[in-house]
Design a protein that fits this description.
The protein is α/β, with parallel strands linked by helices and about 375 residues long. The protein has 2 domains: about 120 residues, no CATH class; about 210 residues, Spore Coat Polysaccharide Biosynthesis Protein SpsA, Chain A (Alpha-Beta Complex). Helices cover about 50% and strands about 15% of the residues. The protein has 14 helices and 11 strands. It has a 7-stranded mixed sheet, with helices on both faces. α1 crosses α6 and α1 packs parallel to α12. The N and C termini lie far apart (about 50 Å).
Amino acid sequence: MDLTIAAASFSAALLLTNFVSIVLAWTQLERRRTVAPPRGDAPPVSIVIPARGIEPFTSETLDRAFRLDWPDYELIFCVAHTDDPVAVAIRTTMARYPDVPARLLFGDDRISGNPKLNNCVKGWEAARHDWVILADSNVLMPRDYIQHMMQAWRPDSGLVCSTPVGSRPDGFWSEVECAFLNTLQARWQYTGAAAGLGFAQGKSMLWSKPLLDANGGIQALAAEIAEDAAATKLVNGLGRKVHLVASPFEQPLGHRKLEAVWSRQARWARLRRVTFPLFFAPELLVGATMPLLFALIAAAGSGADVLSTTLLVLAAVYLPEYALALAKGWYASPRLIPAMVVRDIMVPAIWLRGWLGGAIDWRGNTMNITTKSEEADEVLSGA
């Protein structure tokens, strides 16, 4: 009986935590709305965009970057290798918008084991303005992209970010990716922000260039294998905060396969485990798997109906989560519920992968994601 009560209590606690996280995120998030154009005296902004390879929505994301509703901004595209096919797409788009200041820079500055950060160095150093946005090439920028970033900056800000919100899925595994990105990862990031624990996200990052340059410059972001983890620790160390935009920006997904979803989520899990292990450890408890497991243990001990227990737990987890997606204008379809179920089946395996060593692939780059102590152990062992 004690085990039954304990299992029921733990399941209820997890379900309550899940519901509270949705409520907190709900209070932080706004449905997408258009922000009015800025005044003529708005400060100029540099947007540094690292790019690699052609993706399904490359043409559209490039086009969007040249159509922003901001009086003075420049685009700096960074490509590591001159033979990368994305360079042709960038040049073609630049030619269509001759009135928008834009440059294409090549080179690979090896300041870290993070290929994206290495690609950004030349762009950061070439930026002409005091406000700099580091933006991934697959962010679908709305016309008021800069307005949303600048409006989120507060007197105590050290950095403003946006999580990616998955959109336009093509196929079931793309919907699983949406379930990971949106109502799980974005939700918990905004929950953390509501609790005063702002974490950076590398998709879109607005920096005060003088602030970062005075504290080590972009090279300071090489302190961790993930530039957003290094940014979080740097900003917190300065006594400032990471703030999030109220309406995060889209990342169109297109077609995805299981292998791609697993690879991306395993890489991110490993990065979170290495950079923030205390926050990563409880991730095993998110989603429906653990509350359902303990609820079934309690049902077995009390003689409750297993099917009814399962349906109640799944409804308690997924209906509020689905409501969050609907309320904030994120992707939602009847197929999203089974995608959430599959996601939560994957969570324990991804969590376990996060604790294991070994190389991780990032868009053709092999990354050995380790902690400083693990690096030292490898050196001592001759690995």
